Amino acid sequence: MSELSGRDVISIVDFSRSELDLIMEEAEKLKGKRTDDLKGKIMATAFFEPSTRTRLSFQTAMLRLGGSVIGFSSEEGTSIEKGESFSDTIRMLDNYSDIIVVRHRLEGAAKLAAELADAPVINAGDGSKNHPTQTMLDLFTIKETFGHIDGLNVGVLGDLRFGRAASSFILGVSKYNVKLFLISPPELKARRDVIAYLKDNNIKFSEVERLEDVISELDVIYVTRVQKERFADPAEYEKVRGSYRITARMLASARKEAIVMHPLPRVDEIDISVDSTPHAAYFRQAANGVPVRMALLKLILGG
Ligand code: NCD
Fold first, then answer.
1. How many angstroms does the Cα of residue 81 sit away from the middle of ligand 1?
2. Looking at the structure, do residues 199 and 277 belong to the same domain, yes or no?
3. Helix, strand, or coil here: 97?
4. Catalytic positions
5. Which residue, 5, 95, 135, 174, has most beta carbons within 10 Å?
6. What is the residue range of 97's domain?
7. Ligand 1 lined by 101 (C-beta under 6 Å)
8. Which atom of ligand 1 is nearest to the CA of 264?
9. Which PROSITE patterns match (predicted)?
10. What is the pLDDT of residues 109-147, one digit of tens each?
11. Predicted pLDDT at 303
12. Spatial contact of 129 and 164, defined as CB atoms under 8 Å apart
């Protein structure tokens, strides 16, 4: 049995480096494979918020391990529309499946689901802070590219305030010996609790406003979308909309081997001119969602 057997996956901070290494090693072995490891097992996807990559790569991962999938991709069409609670919905899925993958707009939803369900629960993104499996595939992509994570200069650009992929990535990558650059307009600076975590753990980081000022130092440029749906005030969104945009021209001053990452979806923060440069890593990053989620499902449910 793996040390991750039966584990809930709520936040990246709950995972040790050796556990992350185990997941990444397993993902490397499973990449491109089809197995029968989870034959007879059922995964439920409870997605209360939109998703393309996360939900479909979880489904693909389960199918490639020989398992089956049930679930919903929005509240529409479920009894939530009749007024059923989140808790009752999760209790039902717990009866029908061996593992539950939850996405929700509210922070803490996955933790609550894990308390309610006997089956392991995986957080597929809740609120503005946690998206642990996204971070696992991000780390895997970096390791696959450079052969290591320690020693790299990592810039995280964009909506560090509301972006859960960004916050989770900052927390996860800081388990490695990296130099962090948090790059954002003042309105979108990293959350106070994320900054406190970095300080408490003696992580080297600096906060800057413009990518241009640090681009030549970076090995990894992790770009994120302004999280329009999380602004309470549309005028506040309008103020920061389009405030940063990375283009192929800007990358002329980047290191030759630097990679541009993005959890996707992108809106306009990475110009399509970047796609055809050797720096663009975001599509293979998204593809890595499958082997990494296969590894996680296998380590939690297998054996
Ligand atoms: C992200 C999310 O939902 O947090 N998408 C993803 O899972 N790849 C990022 C985003 O929506 O900007």
1. 24
2. yes
3. coil
4. 53-54, 82, 103, 131
5. 135
6. 12-131+289-301
7. no
8. 8
9. CARBAMOYLTRANSFERASE
10. 999 999 999 999 999 999 999 999 999 999 999 999 999
11. 66
12. yes
